[in-house]
Structure prediction request, 384 residues.
Amino acid sequence: MTRHAIIADVVFDGDTLHRQRAVVVAGDRIEGILPSGGLSADLPAERLPQGAWLAPGFIDVQVNGGGDVLFNEAPTPEGIARIAAAHRRFGTTGLLPTLITDERAKMRRALAAVAEARRTDPSVLGIHLEGPFISPERPGVHHPRFIRTPDEDDLGLIIEADPGVRLVTLAPERVPRDTIRRLARAGVRVSLGHTSATYDEARQALADGATGFTHLFNAMPPLASRAPGPIAAALESRECWYGLIVDGVHVHPAMLKLALRGLGRPMLVTDAMPPVGGTRATFTLYDQEITTQDGRCLRADGTLAGAALDMASAVRNCVTMLDIPLAEALRMASAHPADFLGLGLELGRIRPGYRADLVALMPDGMAVLATWVAGRRSETGPQG
Prediction:
């Protein structure tokens, strides 16, 4: 087992800031955090540039694409590898490839591809099925032709699959009453999204086992005085997590600040599309061209189609747009999503025994210097 150390002016372990510390890595695990002057002379050590922070690697539970690849169009291990490599450049060391609403055959291929990808790439934590059990009233860019109510074959496919973490976004008012309970009992994480659910319906879904809200505020009813809807249910529920797209496009900063004052646990998501870490500004979704303009991924009719956002930028935006401390923004990008996925005892923090998923960054501007996944330094270069 190889051992090495990474020395940084600041180490954020997910809870606490440590000054002038070294993180010792043994194999794929974190051995400990030591004073930088207390290392053995024969232990290989990498010293990060002056002022750099070392933090838990980012975890993104909603990644539609990256590196010019859309998961819906390339539900293969090779496609997943390109997406994951693109996002590592921006500090993401764990992700869920996300399949938006599609036919059952595509779902089956995606589940198999993720299971295969996980054999060689520890950054692939599982799969997010965003749909197809959503509301036709709140489809966003999801194709109405594929939106449907789950049947036994759909549920059997999801429950019996073994792609790691399974996350399903659904509209609770569009599925049979026992659907959420069945999924939750089988270990599937359920998130509410693309929904027209009432406040009471959202509360019942949480009671039945749902624990998340997908891109809070987007594709759901707005807060209203006599119709609080799912947003109010999310903000008042201590035992739930809600994803936030902090790009200045999807949600106004004032509403994001409101979410940060809720009782639930906010987590950053990118909802990223192929241009993230890629070279092309356009891509195809459902045989329609999507164009990236001024940070927006847009269909020809002006509908938002995912985001051109990476996790390093989301963290930076939290600090510059929402005025929150960097440590809290980093927690929203690591510990919170790890806890949501049930992986909080292994990922999302720098602690002895945890997997060595790390990101080195410069706090001014959030330039990513390097990432480590399961103790292995990324081969991709730094990004600004």
